[in-house]
Amino acid sequence: MPDSLLSRFDLVFIILDEKSAEKDKKIADRVCRNHRLAPKVNEAFNRFNEEDDYIIHPSEHQNAKNDQIIFEKNSIYQQPDLKSKEILEQNFLRRYISHCKHNVHP
Fold first, then answer.
1. Dihedral sign of CA atoms 87, 92, 95, 96 in order
2. Residues 6+ apart with CB under 8 A from 69
3. Residue of 71, 72, 69, 52 whose CA lies nearest to 61
4. Which of 92, 95, 73 is nearest to 84 (CA)?
5. Is the pLDDT of residue 13 over 70?
């Protein structure tokens, strides 16, 4: 690209791409997992707005759920080749913190 087309804020980097099938497979796996498991923009927006009062205390709707999911499924942090760790769901963690605030007085 000619210098005249570059603005003063553009940065130019030279990147050497070394051939490595293993590295390429890891990158492709990560990109595919990000796209497969990431929520769609509309779903994320709806989840952000629905019944959320931005307070840590759980709503009655959340308390009514007896089948509350505790651990996330299909987390982007799970590595297929590594031993995966269980990650707590955000709603469960929110309820647990609220319970501790009300019932535990050190």
1. negative
2. 89, 91, 92
3. 52
4. 73
5. yes
Task: Please state the pTM of the whole predicted model.
Answer: 0.30
pLDDT value for 43: 57
The answer to whether residue 1 sits within a structural domain is no
| Strand locations in 1-106 (E) | none
Q: 70 with 106, same domain?
A: yes
Which amino acid, 32?
Answer: C
How many Cα atoms occupy the beta-carbon half-sphere of 37 within 13 Å?
14
Higher pLDDT, residue 39 or 18:
18
pLDDT of residue 78: 55
Count the domains in the chain. 2
* Cα angle 90-79-86, degrees, rounded to a multiple of 5: 35
Residue 44 has pLDDT above 70, yes or no: no
Q: Residue 9 domain-assigned?
A: no
Q: Is residue 35 part of a domain?
A: yes
Tell me: do 63 and 41 sit in the same domain.
no
Domain that holds residue 104: 53-106
